[in-house]
Design brief:
This is Acetyl-CoA C-acetyltransferase. InterPro entries: Thiolase, Thiolase-like, Thiolase_C, Thiolase_CS, Thiolase_N. Its EC number is 2.3.1.9. The protein is an alpha+beta fold. It is built from 13 helices and 12 strands. α1 packs across α2, α6 crosses α11 and α10 runs parallel beside α11. The relative contact order is 0.21.
Length: about 375
């Protein structure tokens, strides 16, 4: 049976909103991870079959097929194509899935998969709102077909996070304790150098070298308690939500033939990949259904998985997922998650997988499972096996 392998994975530091990476052009930001990946693996770039990058809000610096542009900006061969995909928050995780599927089909041997997002330059949901200046309505929720099927209801990630907190009886205090733990874990990971191997430092135009994630904060339960809810009368505050930020990430996915022909040393095997949909109004519950599906397909249990990455879009999302599936918190996001480290939407999927791979190697674990909630009520699941 054909196999798909992760040869290597790399990312930039995650820059906080308005921080060190805010003025870096999205194509250059993505090119940085791609160039580092090629250099680290020693692969012949001319042998790469395709470049697949996740990116949302593909306007401005992210428009014009940023995957293709980034490859060229990196100074790599112009016969190698690139394609940009949007599965919302799961875009670069889906990029890995498409890359692996190309390899598993036997039609490709070497594929670069990754993602990029400069949220400082292009605000979240900018693409949904840009049409208004030309007299167009906002997307999907105002579509007559959508309204006929789902009703005239406000579709919002904040409302979804609130609905989840209410349904699973997750208190504001529960979420704030979760958020504080995310920051504590992230700061400890940085202090111990756990991210050093996966980060390719960025040298800015003025010579400043950025080599550390910028988002983790010194915070406390007392500080969090003083914040106002994002939805009036609700439980969700900015303290329990992922941070807006800037980053890129990239992985090299290879077939057995590609590994043999190019003398590559794979670090992990992709054991499983799948994606499922759930209620789009609830939106953020997808990881529950998707994880159940993945475990059923593979015959694995929660106990078989050594480490989990479940994206911290909001604390309530991960807490509900843990409760429904019986996932122990001490195996989830052990180096912090999006609340502390940021959620650079298009880049998050491969950022999480890069961290998961390195942590499996550090701890000697075998299987790692990654999932994340995505716009439209979707969720990808990838299970990787350390080699």
């Amino acid at each position: 049976m054909a196999e798909a392998y992760i040869v290597d994975a790399v990312r930039t530091p995650v820059g906080k909103r308005g921080g060190a990476l805010a003025t870096v052009h999205s194509a250059d930001l993505a090119a940085h991870s791609i160039a580092a990946l090629v250099r680290r693996t020693g692969v012949d770039p001319g042998a790469v079959d395709d470049v697949i990058l996740g990116c949302c809000d593909t306007i401005g610096s992210q428009a014009g097929d940023v995957a293709r542009t980034a490859w060229l900006v990196a100074g790599l061969p112009d016969h190698v194509p690139g394609v940009t995909i949007d599965r919302q928050c799961g875009s670069s995780q889906q990029a890995v899935h498409f890359a692996a599927q190309g390899v598993l089909s036997g039609t490709q041997d070497l594929v670069v998969a990754g993602g990029v997002q400069n949220m400082s330059a292009i605000p979240i949901s900018a693409a949904m709102l840009v049409g208004q200046q030309y007299g167009f309505s906002t997307p999907f929720a105002e579509s007559p077909g959508w309204v006929e099927r789902f009703g005239d209801v406000e579709v919002s990630q904040f409302n979804s996070a609130e609905m989840i907190a209410e349904r699973w009886a997750i208190s504001r205090q529960d979420m704030e304790a979760f958020a504080l733990a995310s920051h504590d874990r992230a700061r400890a990971a940085i202090a111990e150098g756990r991210f050093t191997n996966e980060i390719e430092p960025v040298t800015l135009a003025d010579g400043t070298v950025v080599d550390t994630d910028q988002c983790p904060r010194e915070t406390s339960l007392e500080k969090m308690a003083g914040l106002q809810p994002l939805v009036p009368g609700g439980r969700i505050t900015a303290a329990v939500a992922s941070q807006i930020c800037d980053a890129s990430s990239a992985m090299l996915i290879a077939s057995e033939r590609g590994i043999a022909e190019h003398a590559l040393n794979p670090r992990a095997r992709i054991h499983h990949l799948s994606v499922r949909g759930d209620d789009p109004v609830w939106m953020l519950t997808g990881p529950i259904r998707a994880t159940r599906h993945a475990l059923e397909k593979t015959g694995l249990s929660i106990d078989d998985i050594d480490l989990f990455e479940c994206n911290e879009a909001f604390a309530s999302v991960v807490l509900a997922w843990e409760e429904e599936l019986g996932v122990p918190h001490d195996k989830v996001n052990v180096n912090g998650g999006g609340i502390a480290l940021g959620h650079p939407i298009g880049a998050t999927g491969t950022r999480l997988m890069t961290t998961l791979l390195n942590e499996l190697e550090r701890t000697g674990g075998r299987y790692g499972l990654q999932t994340m909630c995505e716009g439209g009520g979707q969720a990808n699941v990838t299970i990787i096996e350390r080699l």
